[in-house]
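We give the entry.
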Amino acid sequence: MSLLSLTNLSFGYHENHLVFENISFEVTPGEVFCIIGPNGCGKSTLIDSILGINHPKSGTIEISGKNSKKLKPREFAQRIAYVPQSHTTTFPYTVLDVVVMGQTFATKLFASPGEPQRDAARASLAMVGLKGFENRLYTELSGGELQLVLIARALAQESDILVMDEPTAHLDFRHELMVMEIIALLVKEKGLSIIMATHYLNQAFYLENAGVNTRVALMNQGGFDTVGTPTEVLTKERLQDVFKIITTLGTTEEDGTTRKYIIPLRNQH
């Protein structure tokens, strides 16, 4: 069963220039779909099209078998949650208040969130390792903590699909690993489906190494170059063609498990 289906989707900001065209793919329950590609290839533009921010020139987007254009905002929020790559911390809300905002679609007009919404927010914070942060001020958190709060807010929506645009773009190694561990947990134990745009090639291998059902779409100028498992897609030849870099693929053994990774060596000249 397909939770999300794109068919021949095309989009451009200007009449005579398309950022991407004829993109088609499906996302099924309990999988991660990684969109990987160089800067400017259209990853974020594609994410914004899925979210309804951009209006495609042609093609269709179906969510749980229904045309996304026909979904009311409440229905859309029940199916898709979003984690941006960054967020401006303007007002000193508490962490709990920020996460409760993920439940606002479930409240009636002019109504305030109740205890069920707060309980869902607390559970989401515990899931991302932030139990005890409820009364901390959002404006006083580190970058890594902020990103975990945004993930908790998206989880509070209790949607089937989580869309993440460069979720670790501004994080150090420790917090990047924490986010990847949470993604693996959400897919394997909660059955969520995740669409993730990323620059970091090894994140796809991390998920595959962790036993997560993972597919990669290697995006180049104008569309998808190829789609498949990380092992099938992230080859030295394809990375040289798309990213113009020379790489080597390595493996390491840990606890009886072979783990794959990519080492960038140099730019192609």
